[in-house]
Amino acid sequence: MAFVSQKRNVGFHVPVARLLCLVMTDTDIFISGAGIAGMIGAALLARRGYRVTVCDPATPPEEMTSEGSDLRSTAYLAPSIAVLEEAGLWEKLVPDATPLEALRVMDSAGWPPRQTATRTFRPADLVLDAFGRNVMNWRAHRTLLGALRDAPNVTLMLGVGFADLLARDDRAFVTLTDGTRLTAKLVIGADGRTSPVREACGIETRIRRYGQKAVAFACTHDLPHQGISTEIYNAGGAMVTVPLADQNGSPASCIVWMDNGDAITALTRMEPDAFNARLADRAMHVLGPMRKATPLRVWPIVTQTVNQLIARRTALVAEAAHVMPPIGAQGLNTSIADMKTLADLLGEDPGDPDGLARYASLRHRDLAIRTAAIDAYNRLCRSGSGPIQAIRAAGLRGVADIAPLRQRIMKAGMGGA
Questions:
Q1: Which helix (H) or strand (E) holds 208?
Q2: Of 272, 290, 193, 273, which Cα lies nearest the Cα of 232?
Q3: Per-residue pLDDT tens over the stretch 57-81
Q4: What is the pLDDT of residue 396?
Q5: Of the candidates 121, 110, 93, the residue with the CA atom closest to the CA atom of residue 399
Q6: What does pTM read for this prediction?
Q7: How far are the Cα atoms of 79, 349, 374, 398, 416 from residue 234, in angstroms, in the given order?
Q8: CATH superfamily of 90-135+210-300+384-413
Q9: SS3 for 140?
Q10: Which of 30, 117, 349, 359 is the most exposed place for a label (fewest CB within 10 A)?
Q11: CA torsion sign, 160 to 162 to 166 to 172?
Q12: Does domain 16-71+137-207+304-379 have CATH number 3.40.50.300?
């Protein structure tokens, strides 16, 4: 894979000789982005003996109701839990984790939704006691941040972002938004779908839009979830209910609700009673009466891919490298797989081009297959066409009822081949 020239004009030009004199510090690995994937990667790499510096322009919200808090949840699947254990982080997340003991998939048509097919997938098919453990993102972010503040080999720089990058054969020179300059043997862009590291490298993106948005929030409900995550398909997209620990004595779940953009906008303007009634209808009353318990967080649904995952002394991971619709718990689990693969390929010189090329080769195939599958699945699941809905329902029954196919699909969803 060809390397790109990495230089972006941010209003100043510093000759290399002068830049060397201005460098204030150095590190083995610099990570732009202190999101969940970036922090997991930092802890994993620090455990392996690298000096890691992490920066992020944002200061993470401390509470669920704080402005900008991430009210999505992540179902950490078994492979991701293994990475968290290796990084010394899982024991810190366990107290807030709720087991996912089954996945129920329901197809529906019309409004109010009418059930057309339902199947339940059990982890016993994969010789597991649970598919994974669910944790609210805002809580995971806060917990991981606390762990990194105490971690050896990790330097956190919050409230300051990445500004510019100049890569040479033996190191990269990084400039931050507060004027700080440092050197790193490897720069990792874990800084989201608008990644400034990716922009500095000149790496192109491809975006597929669906006219959809998603809204995420937590709710309480009358019926227990019994550790079952439910995906319910209807025209406009999927709704997913993911088990949470009880809140104030009531069963609770995290909701991710996809629909056409106008429909999601209308939801955000509803009065609470009307919203709650609509929510219970959309969930086909599997959890009984439901009550929104947090603010709503809305974002557009896209598939975004990059034309390359690496540049000189630089690797992209997580949403800097790929964005997918929130289906099947693939997003963050795929990002953790990026970090694990990259960490496994790094040597004494973490920015060695051979190791980065192997990372790009290994991740490219998996990401291409995974993003294409999720894209196609989202298009199928959001259709309101009668014939397509019939195919969707028949496909669900076929996948669930044919044991070898069911196990293969479940294994692929867990990150296997």
A1: strand 205-221
A2: 290
A3: 987 777 776 777 788 888 898 899 9
A4: 62
A5: 121
A6: 0.87
A7: 30, 50, 16, 19, 28
A8: D-Amino Acid Oxidase, subunit A, domain 2 (3.30.9.10)
A9: helix
A10: 349
A11: positive
A12: no
